[in-house]
Amino acid sequence: MILDNMWGNKSWGKAYVKQAVNDDYLRQQALTSLAKHTYKAEVMGGNLSGYLLNEYQKVHDALCHIPNGDVEDLWRRSTTALPSMFSNLCNDGPMLYIGLLALMNPSQVSVVQLAMLEQTATRLRYTFSFAKHIITIYPIELARLNNFYRLLDLKSKMKDGCMSYSPAAGSLGLSLEVRYESRVLNVSFNYPGAKSERDALKDVSFSIKAGQLVVIVGANGSGKSTILKLLTRYYDTTSGTVLIDGNPIQDYRIADLRSVTASLTQEHTLFPLSMSENIGIGSPSSVTNLDKIAQAAKLAGAQDVIKNFTDGYDTVLEPVKTAHLSYTGRGNEDLKKEYEKMEKTINVSGGEKQRLVASRTFMRMLSEDIKFVIVDEPSSALDPGGEYELFKQLREARKGRTMIFVTHRFAHLTKFADLILCMKGGSVIEMGTHQELLNHEGEYAHLYNVQAQAFT
Fold this sequence. Notes:
Radius of gyration: 31 Å
Mean pLDDT: 81
Number of helices: 18
CATH topology of the domain at 176-192 and 199-260 and 371-454: Rossmann fold
CATH superfamily of the domain at 176-192 and 199-260 and 371-454: P-loop containing nucleotide triphosphate hydrolases
Largest sheet: 6 strands, mixed
Structural class: alpha/beta
Low-confidence stretches: 1-9, 180-185
């Protein structure tokens, strides 16, 4: 009994390194990883779920006839029948011996002894088999079931609208208005589950005309990013209304609104896909259009970064884990070196990574469907010169779309803004153009002068 359970897992206790090399399997793992919270904001905001599900179905169909499992299970299944025959012979050997002894000398063996031996052998075999099942399989299957039922219980707390978003012919941007339903101009909001009783936004009111360039400024925690989350309907207001082209945002289908929106935020990151798909997925309908992908990379200043990669646009900067080193193998230096070769990654600077991520947004902006662009602190790893060039390219790619910037280094942006919203403590305390707010000599003028002194 013991031999059967030990022999069936030849790799247990051995030093080995394994690596997955099937392209379809690796792509399946990469697509599965995009369900992580890390990528949630961009997958939702970019309406990427349909594309990702279709791609997952393709690799799932390609893998349906290929066995899947851990290395021990696959190893055992790949062995010949000889070890199994030998282990069965060892398990049943005592019974065969007693049986032969009973035939040759019946007086030495009773039927009761024979029955007890058979029962004991069966129970021991079952015990070891069940123990093996509990140790190796049960935890894995339990985790899978737990994830499955957790996903079944997920329900969107955001009620979808029924109205499609169809911008007027020739319209390049969309208009936005934040107001209270009884025309007392204020919107308030607090994050669900927030411990603080203070609203993240309080008595906020403003209007943005279609095609305007808007810059939101203010200290950390003033509510700048929160406003963007309401305008893109990641959350609904606690009180008040957000209007898009004159209609409450809740009336529109969420997918329709996100299909006309492009965003670039500090939360965006690289996907575990090729560089080409990382950029092209910004516009799923053009994901294989290499000319557009190269154009988007150029706009973001990422073309030189990609040229330095040996595999160019086929490079996967942050691939899924493909190799595993057994516990026993961790003390084997030769195996460790092989493992490190298998998991080799390409390192890029924070600024280079942000340019690569920005390429995806430019790819999205190359689509004529985009009417609204939001940019939220995407350049923390860029030097001032790099940030200036990125924001300049974003402004020039706007082409009449409604665009909102949130950034700490705003001095080079606000001079071009049609509207500036200055926030403090969750409220809009000033609004107007750059010159109007400087003349007012309030909070905006103070923030602007501080920045001007810092760079002189």
